[in-house]
Amino acid sequence: MQENIWRKDFPILETKVYGKPLIYLDNGATSQMPSQVINRIYEHYQKEHGNIHRGIHYLSEESTKAVEDTRELVKNYINAKNVESIIFTQNTTDSINIVAASIGLENDGGGIVTTEMEHHSNFVPWQQACKHSGRQFFVSPVVDGELDIDELENILKNNSIRLVACAHVSNVTGTVNPIKRVIELAHKYGAEVLIDGAQGILHLPVDVEELGCDYYCFSAHKMIGPTGVGVLYGKTDCLEKLEPVRYGGGMVDEVLEENTTWGNLPYRFEAGTPNIGGIIGLGEAIKYLMEHDVELIRKYEDYLLNYAYEKISSIEHVKILGHPAKRAGAISFVVDGAHPYDIASMLDKAGIAVRSGSHCAQPILRTFDVTATVRVTPNFYNTREEIDYFCQTLDKVINMLRKYSI
Ligand code: PLP
């Protein structure tokens, strides 16, 4: 595989941690930004910052244009049909909460299905919406890190279901779910589908038209953009049916003492001043990916993840969670005789950033009968040498921890 041609664009990777070169393998939690994105945000605040959609002065118009240009970029990036389908939110969690809270206001009585694989962000909002609205809450099972599609179909067949909420990619095992199949099944039984794309949007091509999903949610900060910005994609006919759940400026048509009418899509779901600089940063992140051959980026990521998988699996006492048919972004493992927190904190002292804990995904961890794992999530700016160093250090750390624990 060729040399890493993107790494030089990510200045944070030059950082030294405790005097050692940083090896950042926690991209599943948040990715790093290239200089192009950092500079664009800086430039926005230096030269064009004004509030959007509400002024007719130069700065307001420049900022509005930059935000609306980003909406168009997002639309093209995920191949949405309409720009009205792209709603800017704070993050994936926020996008899901908007849909869940709104569906919680309806009274058609249909149930909601999530899966055991979900991040808490795609679990708790639905659970709570069901609790408050009296809808039934179903959790479709996961076996060895993969969805049990037959069980999902049984739930759909035997119950009236309003919506299925499912991850594109698991943030724990890296399982790439057969979402096209999930969407087809849900539609067959009359349910809508929301895809949590937090871990999918960077590593996989996303074509919402081709997938046919009703909603797709993601965060800018997991795709080399800034924190504080997310996207809720919704088919326009689905969004038209949803009641807004956030009220205020920018989302209304007419406000009378006795009632208010809503503005058009997408603005009716964007109450208040959004994260303008962050949205513009997201636009620049998308431009970066498109201009730097996103296909090649994904090929390289695949290669690096497989390389890491092979090397980590060959380390003694390590057990990787799940053996999915297709994996993206993440490898989680436990070690016989060493706790994930101890491993992560010793790796940190060697300059290596990994995640340890439950990864906001307790239900799937329970399916493996563990309460915490170590998780490694490389991105396209990582290198084979970093994986080698990580594995050598991990091996040493395991030996040291096991020696003192026995
Ligand atoms: N869904 C998945 C699969 C995730 O991995 C995460 C974050 O790690 C989220 C949702 C929540 O993302 P955010 O914190 O950006 O809202």
**Given the structure, what is the number of helices?**
13
Bound ions, cofactors and other small molecules, one mention each: pyridoxal-5'-phosphate
* End-to-end distance: 41 Å
The coarse silhouette is globular
Q: What does it look like?
A:
This protein has 406 residues and is an alpha/beta fold. The protein has two domains: 137 residues, Aspartate Aminotransferase, domain 1 (Alpha-Beta Complex), CATH 3.90.1150.10; 254 residues, Aspartate Aminotransferase, domain 2. The protein contains 13 helices and 19 strands. The strands form six sheets. Strands 4-12-11-10-9-5-6 form a seven-stranded mixed sheet, sandwiched between helices. Strand 13 and strand 14 form a beta hairpin. It is globular, with a radius of gyration of 22 Å. The mean pLDDT is 96. The chain binds pyridoxal-5'-phosphate (PLP). Pyridoxal-5'-phosphate binds next to helix 3.
